[in-house]
Fold this protein.
Amino acid sequence: MTASEPSNFDEMHAPDGSVRQAYRGYQRWLEQQEDGWMKRKDFEAESFFRRTGITFNVYGENDAEERLIPFDMVPRIISGGEWRRLSKGIEQRVRALNAFMHDLYHRQEIIRSGRLPERLFRNNAAWLPQMVGFTPPGGVYTHITGIDLVRTGPDEFMVLEDNARTPSGVSYMLENRETMMAMFPELFSTVKVRDVSDYPRRLAKSLAACAPQGAGPKPSIAVLTPGIFNSAYYEHAFLADQMGAELVEGSDLRVVNGKVQMRTTVGFRPVDVLYRRVDDEYLDPLSFNPDSVLGVPGIMDVYRAGNITIANAPGTGVADDKAIYSFMPEIVEFYTGEEAILPNVETWRCADPDSLKYVLDNLADLVVKEVHGSGGYGMLIGPTASKKDIATFRKKLENNPDNYIAQPTLSLSTCPIFTKKGLAPRHVDLRPFVLCSPDGVDITPGGLTRVALKKGSLVVNSSQGGGTKDSWVLDD
Amino acid sequence: MLGRVAHGIFWMYRYLERAENTARLLAAGQRMALTRGQDLADSEWKSVLTTLGLRPAYEEHFEDYTGAHVCDFVLRSKHNPESVLSMVERARTNARTCRSALTAEVWEAVNEGWMTLRDLLAKPVRDATLGAALGAIRRESTLARGATHGSMLRNETYCFTRLGTFLERADNTARILDVKYYLLLPSISYVGTPLDSGQWDNVLRSLSAERAYRWLNAGRMDARSIADFLILDDRFPRSLVFCYSTLRENLAELAQLHGAEGECHAAMREADLRLNDKTVEDIFEQGLHQFLLEFIADNQRLAGAIAQDYRFVS
């Protein structure tokens, strides 16, 4: 067994090699396993995923081959106490995000008060003038949010990123648990873990609570997917199936009599709530990208007339912007009147000349990100980058500083994974999934743990070779 | 249910059925080739290609008719867009597209079947492995059908699984009977006389009908009895009458679910008129080939009416 490097917080092992409280039940179970069990189980897990078809298409691969996201069998464990603190911070943040969206598209008090520079969203491609002055049904913008958290110490959790556009990965959270329960049923009878399996039911309930007026007592919900070639298609189908909702493509939908309707075998039938997994720009060829075949011509008119709920609301992508992110502590305080419970990672905005100078002087130590980037693309990780990469980024920064932010290279916490040589620590993050409706904020205990599989790597994105783990919140 | 999904389900089951019937046809062909001289073997493989409508495409790439070439072309050739492998792939793609209309059992059966066959057909199939490959194709199709039968709700979706299966099956039975009968017979004067019983045995094997037929018609092996059995016997699950009675039931079920009939119900009634109360003598009087040609065309019209009525495409 490997003890962690002293610089990282190892979530399972204390520096003296002892096992931390949250992992003790798991450790006891681990000690009872026979040699060689791990290899057998690993094969079992892989064939389970292949059979059930949990796959992930990676953009940029020619044949759009379906790849599995590697799954690691060591659970990532969070104690009940830790989770209670985290969920308070998450709820506060999501409430603030939702209020922020409403304000940005209405009176813009936060800009009038001078807390947020106007150019930040004026230059933001995710900002939609079509949303100005319009309030979505129930006043909800961020129906589903994924808050990416990283940990650097026993009590140090911070937010790395907000995903208010279309957070993905929740199907892995659910399937990872199913896999673990199928492979290690005895483990779950000795360690009490909080259930996640009712997420789809909660999602359906939360979406129904956001239905437009006049939808009737049982609103019709549909999941809009770009289709089977999309990287997250498996998740779209999975969620529709689990919610008992229709899985629709743009070609199934049409505006008929002022409602968005789907083409069924008996004619067109209305959709009340559309959980869309299509980006804003493809949603309505009449309002946005005219070449889009993924969306529904005229849906924005129906939306603005209050006849359909779109989740998440168009235009919420503004909140995913990393320059906006750098203002989140102020945003939380402005809308909740409280100090942010979950801190941000320290962030330098390169738009600011002093910060830019600092960043340019310290490129080799920093992580530089595009403000609109996602998925781990288009970023520089200073400590592991080549001289050439750093020089390229320096040019980019000098040419267009507004497009970048920089953060310190964090010593992310590690959690053990199984390797051929036994347990070995790898860096992890955590994406809890948060539902928001007029009935309240609902957080599923745990979330998706992503893990960098390469030794020392800090990149956990599945598109860049990261894996996932089952995430446990203990029922203690 | 969505029209697009009904479309996907309908074709998924057509592809599965066609893949299975193609495997059966190849198995019978191989058996024939092994038990006959070279000339007969060649003409057997030609008739397999004709039945599948693949002869022109095949002849663009090959000049001979060896079992190895024909089987490879039919099963897995990249030059053949109608290969069994691409049918299984399409069935699986449709299952993915309609994932939320299927049970996990059905999806897993189709997905695993595709994985098995993809691996099995990754390399050219040799004589020694042909039997295993053909067996696997039939098994995977059977598993998917079994999972459907055992796990799917008896609702609209199920009706489309049945419609796809039995439209395709009726088409395949008619084609096999037509080609074997019309092209294989050396001369029309043989009609109705006891012929090379191996040939007829082969027709029956191509439809997995040999045992059922023997059971019911001990000792008789003539064109009329066999046509009677494959067209009109409502106990044999691949006969035209059996396929049409299943189609009729499922169309009636849809009409009841929706409270309305469509063009396809009218087409079904016309088809009934042609099949019901027919005797094999009536059919031979009209001419078997003519009868089967009309049947295949009507069958396609019925499929078209179903697609139209249930809004398969916008």
The interface with chain B takes residues 50-53, 227-228, 233, 237-238, 240-241, 245-249, 251-252, 254, 262-267 of chain A (CB under 8 Å). Residues 1-6, 58-64 of chain A have pLDDT under 50 and may be disordered. The two ends of chain A are 27 Å apart (CA to CA). Residues 36 and 328 of chain A are 48 Å apart (CA to CA).
